[in-house]
């Protein structure tokens, strides 16, 4: 079971409170997590990644085990702590400005 933490506005859209737990088939990657998340919560399609290209939205960041993995290839296997549910997979909105 994978644990996912979403930013507040996406939790509101998905109508969930707190952490989400979903089943993800191995290998556990950004792609497989997002596929499962969008399958379970179709209202999130297009909010985290583009529906056509499947690329991460520019102001969305992914964190695993305290590390920003946003720029890693989406099909790279994630740490065992994420795959086992020991640590959550964080999806966060980035802040832009100057």
Brief rundown of the structure:
This protein is α+β, with helices and mostly antiparallel strands.
Q: What attributes characterize this protein structure?
A:
single chain; 98 residues; alpha+beta; Ubiquitin-like (UB roll); five-stranded mixed β-sheet; 19% strand; globular
Topology:
Blueprint: E1 2-5, H1 8-14, E2 20-22, H2 30-40, E3 60-64, E4 67-68, H3 80-83, E5 89-93
How would you explain this protein's 3D organization?
By secondary structure, the chain is α+β, with helices and mostly antiparallel strands. The protein has a single domain, classed as Roll (Ubiquitin-like (UB roll)). The chain has a five-stranded mixed β-sheet with strand order 2-1-5-3-4, covered by helices on one side. A hairpin with a 2-residue loop joins strand 3 and strand 4. The longest helix has 11 residues. The protein is globular, with a radius of gyration of 13 Å. 20% of the residues are buried.
